[in-house]
Design goal:
The protein is elongated and about 60 Å long. By secondary structure, it is mainly alpha-helical. Helix content is about 70%, strand content about 0%. The chain has one domain.
Length: about 150
């Protein structure tokens, strides 16, 4: 466990993820004037912590192992897949959940068929993914190149 905690690539990845999660709360506070601490552990929102994490990982691996390394290629492809999923598949699921919740609200007004609503904030807009990616690259670059 101490090896993992001392690993600079892991540190860069986790620091970028944590910064993204904290920024979600701060951005929500600034934009909507609501303190929502649940955003610290939730998926979705601005910036994408998934994108921040995988881009931080790929950047840290590039700095440490080089862009010609197999490990960099693996981490880069992993980052692309995660970001595609966040902005594509999970975003579509968010939209479907919002529509289904609206249908249930309108069709069964006063006669709920379920107490449980679908989670609507599980995906990301492209700008949230790009912002997370930029945060991950910058955070990882800063962490990996500091003395």
């Amino acid at each position: 466990m101490s090896d993992l905690l001392a690993n600079r690539v892991a540190q860069a990845t986790f620091i970028s993820w944590a910064i993204a999660q904290v920024l979600k709360v701060l951005i929500e506070l600034l934009w909507r004037h609501k303190l929502n601490l649940r955003l610290l552990t939730s998926a979705g929102g601005m910036p994408s912590s998934h994108s921040a994490s995988v881009c931080a990982l790929a950047t840290a691996v590039a700095i440490q192992a080089g862009t010609g390394s197999t490990l960099f290629v693996v981490s880069l492809l992993f980052a692309i897949i995660v970001m595609y999923d966040a902005a594509g598949v999970r975003r579509a699921a968010s939209i479907q959940a919002r529509i289904l919740n609206q249908i249930i609200d309108e069709l069964f007004q006063g006669h709920p068929i379920s107490e449980t609503r679908l989670r609507e904030l599980i995906g990301h807009t492209p700008i949230e993914v790009v912002a997370g990616a930029a945060l991950g690259v910058a955070g990882s670059w800063w962490w990996m190149t500091k003395p």
